[in-house]
Amino acid sequence: MAVLLNGLRLVSSGNLSLHGIKSLQYKSTRILCQLPCKSSYQGRPFSNKNMTVELDNNTGVAVIQMKKPPVNSLSLEFLTEFAINMEKLEMDRECRGVVLTSSNPKIFSAGLDINEMYGKTPEHSGEFWRAVQEMWLKLYGSNMVTIAAINGSSPAGGCLMALACDYRIMADNPKYAIGLNETKLGIVAPFWFKDSMINVIGRRATEHSLQLGLMYSASNALKIGLVDQLVAQDKIMTHALSVMSEWLAIPDHARQITKSMMRKPTLDRLLTNRESDIQNFVNFISKDSIQKSLQLYLEMLKQRKS
Ligand SMILES: CCCCCCCCC/C=C/C(=O)SCCNC(=O)CCNC(=O)[C@H](O)C(C)(C)COP(=O)(O)OP(=O)(O)OC[C@H]1O[C@@H](n2cnc3c(N)ncnc32)[C@H](O)[C@@H]1OP(=O)(O)O
Predict the structure, then answer these.
(1) Is the C-beta atom of 113 inside 6 A of ligand 1?
(2) Does the beta carbon of 71 lie inside 6 Å of ligand 1?
(3) What is the CATH number of the domain that holds 76?
(4) How far is CA 26 from each of CA 29, 43, 139, rounded to the nearest angstrom?
(5) What is the pLDDT at residue 4?
(6) Nearest protein Cα to ligand 1, atom 3
(7) Which of 97, 137, 100, 139 is nearest to 252 (CA)?
(8) pLDDT for res 90
(9) Ligand 1 centroid vs 175 CA: distance in angstroms?
(10) Whole-angstrom Cα distance, residue 159 to residue 46?
(11) Which one, of 52, 299, 17, 294, lies nearest residue 156 by Cα?
């Protein structure tokens, strides 16, 4: 509940994914900038291996800029760093919203690092999959407003990250594509990837997309509702911050409870089946036929380059 007490606003906080709205904390009431106010910007950057995180104290908005060369593939190290950063922001009373974007001008994220799924031990595969789950749980279950500024292509796990946000803005460039293309690699999008897509574009479009492993151009992604808006590449961050200020105009407690109401069943499904989902992944990815498919796909990626 939000209660005003001597200039302090009591707002709910905590991780929706695990416990619903679990604790109440004090946040000082601030007037948010309508637009990013560069002149008064007080960024506090932290963590800088695979991503930069900058929190603007004036707006309460953090920007996570992924910067893992060459294509922001989601390795175990990347996923671990991402989850830690999300946790830190979630706990930070100053932070109310996150914009997720990429420093690579053409690629938002290439999805899961295929090298993490090829030729690895079952132990490693299990640890990797738990980290993939954790990334999604942190993002899909965040109390903060989350906006994906998709400034490049975003296949598979990259698309999942975008789907886990509250709002998706994509750069209006016909060369960029987004979608869950797993079947094209000979692998299968797990149920919570599927659920994330259903919750955004509906069941029929998801079935079509998943069976065919469809990648959508930016304009087609807009048509099916996979992204909410297209914006010129050079305007994407300004626009994302402007949309963020609209979302932050809603009282946190009301928006958070609503978000939890909408997302909890989907989150609970993975939480309840987390261990069996890891086991399924390990069994599936260890099969010779699946390893062969991944090997061929990796070779195809390398050949395409030459
Ligand atoms: C029952 C259920 C159980 C569970 C069943 C299992 C469920 C698994 C779910 C899987 C989810 C996934 O995300 S699977 C990942 C899916 N991702 C993809 O298919 C993306 C493949 N990549 C691309 O399409 C492109 O690379 C793209 C991202 C658009 C960038 O194109 P560019 O032309 O700019 O760059 P490229 O030259 O292609 O790539 C640059 C280098 O990056 C490498 N690279 C590209 N994508 C990579 C990736 N995902 N992982 C590692 N490395 C990658 C290339 O090999 C090159 O390496 P060098 O040659 O060495 O420089």
Answers:
(1) yes
(2) yes
(3) 3.90.226.10
(4) 9, 22, 23
(5) 29
(6) 281
(7) 97
(8) 97
(9) 16
(10) 25
(11) 294
Task: Give yes or no for a contact between 269 and 136, defined as CB atoms under 8 angstroms apart.
Answer: no
The token duo for 191 is 């149920």
Residue 94 CA to ligand 1 centre (angstroms):
35
Q: Which residues of the chain have pLDDT under 70?
A: 1-47, 305-306
The C-alpha atoms of residue 265 and residue 192 are separated, in whole angstroms, by 11
CB 113 within 8 A of CB 79: no
Task: Specify the pLDDT at position 12.
Answer: 33
Number of domains in the chain: 1
Size of the chain in residues: 306
pLDDT at 35: 30
Nearest CA to ligand 1 atom 2: 190
Q: Which of 178, 175, 41, 167 is nearest to 109 (CA)?
A: 178
| Predicted local confidence at residue 304, as pLDDT | 82
CB 49 within 8 A of CB 90: no
Atom of ligand 1 nearest to the CA of 305: 37
Q: What is the pTM of this model?
A: 0.89
Query: Which are the catalytic amino acids?
Result: 112, 157, 181-182
Ligand 1 center–CA 181 separation, angstroms:
11
| Interatomic CA distance for residues 155 and 178, integer angstroms | 5
Strands 216-217 and 177-179: antiparallel
- Give strand ranges (E) for 215-263: 216-217, 229-231
Q: Tell me what ipTM this predicted complex has.
A: 0.98
Q: Using alpha carbons, list the distances in angstroms from residue 139 to 57, 136, 219, 222, 251.
A: 21, 5, 25, 22, 20
Instruction: Identify the domain containing residue 75 by its residue range.
Output: 3-305
